[in-house]
Amino acid sequence: MHVAITGASGLIGSALVKALEAQGHTTLRIGRSATGEGSLRWDPAAGVLDSDALEGIDAMVHLAGEGIATNRWSDEQKGRMLDSRVDGTTLVATTLASMSKKPSVLISGSAIGFYGDRGQTALDETSARGEGFLSDLCVAWEAAAQPAVDAGIRVAFARTGVVLSQTGGALGEMLPFFKLGIGGRIGNGKQQMSWISITDMVDGLIYLLNNDISGPVNFTAPNPVSNSEFTKSLGRTLGRPTILPTPTPALYLKLGKELAQALLFSSAKITPTVLEAAGYTFTHPTIDEALAAELGR
Asked: Which of 30, 98, 176, 238 is 20 to 30 A from 286, comparing alpha carbons?
């Protein structure tokens, strides 16, 4: 396959490029500052994406977007997050729809923020949207891909949970504190954490490319855990204590209350029903396996 990827320099995108090329596929890495062979520069805010340069691609994976936790949330930052996702996805979808030889599939990024804060309720792809900014964001994000759907391209939405990789993301942020023995549960620790290893994240995306799956697809492992369970597992893996809870005021100070509540204190118990029903087998179905594999223990 020849696969175009936006967000190819990010945590997931870079791992996906490496895995695809290791399997003998070719990639076209799309970014705002992309240079060199196998790269294509685009400008989603200005609506610039060269359809001629996309001719010959078999598939596209669209992962680009302003980071959810890059900055404290303000009205302006929320606007940037929304615009980057909606504008970028609209540009990708309309460009692909206009091509004379369209790719067979578009995998478009989304997130389990779609479901909102739902406590201990088990949720799958058939569950209704939740409430709040992240849910609004995901609904608009997915809707922006409609031109590709209308053009007959198979479109799947990768609703991604917490991706576990020691090189970045949430785990990368936590590791320095846990290695020092000062990591601990957040709040009462009962909030559900729906996670996925970077290995299964990448393998799952490749599985979507190769199988006739469309619509929302939860990219979470089959065994979500509470924040307390995750904390204990990470402590065991590192051989470090996890006795003291993380001070809530410190999290509010660092992230702002709204962002901290949305990312760290909300609860979503998500199951990957579509992937499992399609026959995907998780390499790391449990949190202990995922952390041991990622941290080399």
From this structure: 176
